[in-house]
Design goal:
Blueprint: H1 2-25, H2 33-47, H3 60-78, H4 82-99, H5 106-128
Helix pairs in contact: 1-2, 1-3, 1-4, 2-3, 2-5
Length: about 130
Amino acid sequence: MHGFTTRLRQWAARIKRDGVTLWFASKHSATPWYAKALGMFVVGYALSPIDLIPDFIPILGYVDDVLLLPALIWLAVRMIPESTLAECRAQADNWMQKAGKKPTSRVGAAVVVSLWLAISVAAWIWWAR
């Protein structure tokens, strides 16, 4: 069981690092536009202090943190050329050592709040019919 816990912690640390890596990759000229677009979306959402599905909702509240976000990070990282990825990972490692924590994004929070509002308006229009 100890080995499983260690592997899980290492995996979580890699996911956290790759989230920051995507932030650097979205600014890198060698990153393809589609990887930049997905990367910026993932970074905005990952760094947002607000979740799309709030954590207090039983089970579903953790789906985005445990499944959706790691899957999107994995997909975005796979779209980045290997040499660019290595460079951006080194930048992320350096940044995380100096800062000691991940950054936050107000833009990401605004996107999540906008999605909530759009879903609420759509549900209200549908219900009002």
